[in-house]
């Protein structure tokens, strides 16, 4: 492409030189009108050395411009390639903190509103004893607190899983699932169990044994699911959880799956 450009430019310059040479000059044309002017075939011809110098200057200009462009693009790509991972990490950390604070704030507001609603409703029923009022209120508060704790732990598990920290992520999801069960949030419970099942194939026997509280929380979750498995509603969750937990506990370290790209 570049070679064709220089060929066309050289042809254009030579053509211009030849055209300028062939143009007649009325003031210098020999003949009757100018008897003192003699024929000189060398007038009006652009020397070949000048044409080559022009071509060399143009070629040097484009070569310099192209080298500068390549250098600038290399610098820009290096800067952008280094900044993008840092910016993505900063964005993910900030997003996680914002989501966690938002969940805490919403749940605190919901807790206060729930207390007020429960007290108002219970006060209208004069036949209910004060002990019963306190019991029902405590149950409502405990359920709400369990749901709040579960959501925070689930967010924490998402952060660890994004960072390919599968052992801490599985531990967080196990705690979250247990609290979701206490809060009667079955949909969120199944989501947390599903995330545990996705994390366990990346763990080996050493991680299962050495990760603090991981085995304990997994056992607590299995026990809680077994106790609440009325009409086999948690049967599929229990089977998947037992299968992957058993495989992780006997998996050699070198056989653990690698994190996805």
Describe the protein in words.
This protein has eight helices and no strands. It is mainly α and about 260 residues long. Among the domains are: about 1-25 and about 40-85, no CATH class; about 145-255. Helix 4 packs antiparallel against helix 5 (about 185-200) and helix 7 packs antiparallel against helix 8. The longest helix has about 80 residues, at about 50-125. Residues about 20-25 have low confidence and may be disordered.
Structural class: mainly alpha
**What is the count of β-strands?**
0
**Residue-averaged pLDDT, rounded?**
78
Percentage of residues in helical conformation = over 70%
Q: Helix count? A: 8
State the gist of this model.
By secondary structure, the chain is mainly α. It is built from 8 helices and no strands.
Keywords:
261 residues; mainly alpha
SSE blueprint and pairings:
Blueprint: H1 2-22, H2 48-124, H3 130-162, H4 166-182, H5 186-199, H6 205-210, H7 214-227, H8 235-250
């Amino acid at each position: 492409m570049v070679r064709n450009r220089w060929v066309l430019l050289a042809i254009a310059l030579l053509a211009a030189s030849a055209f300028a040479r062939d143009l007649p000059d009325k003031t210098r044309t020999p003949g009757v009108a100018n008897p003192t002017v003699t024929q000189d075939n060398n007038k009006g011809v652009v020397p070949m050395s000048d044409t080559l110098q022009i071509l060399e200057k143009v070629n040097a200009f484009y070569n310099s411009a192209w080298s500068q462009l390549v250098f600038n693009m290399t610098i820009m790509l290096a800067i952008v390639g280094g900044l993008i991972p840092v910016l993505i990490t900063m964005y993910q950390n900030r997003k996680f903190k914002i989501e966690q604070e938002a969940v805490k704030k919403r749940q605190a507001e919901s807790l206060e509103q729930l207390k007020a609603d429960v007290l108002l409703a219970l006060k209208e029923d004069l036949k209910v004893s004060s002990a019963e009022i306190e019991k029902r209120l405590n149950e409502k508060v405990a359920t709400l607190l369990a749901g709040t704790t579960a959501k925070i732990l689930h967010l924490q598990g998402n952060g660890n899983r994004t960072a390919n920290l599968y052992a801490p992520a599985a531990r967080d999801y196990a705690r979250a699932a247990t609290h979701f069960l206490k809060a009667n949030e079955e949909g969120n419970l199944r989501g947390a169990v599903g995330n545990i099942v996705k994390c366990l194939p990346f763990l080996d026997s050493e991680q299962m044994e050495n990760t603090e509280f991981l085995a304990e929380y997994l056992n607590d979750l299995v026990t809680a699911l077994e106790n609440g498995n009325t009409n086999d509603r948690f049967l599929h969750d229990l089977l998947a959880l037992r299968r992957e937990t058993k495989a992780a506990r006997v998996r050699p370290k070198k056989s653990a799956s690698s994190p996805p790209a």
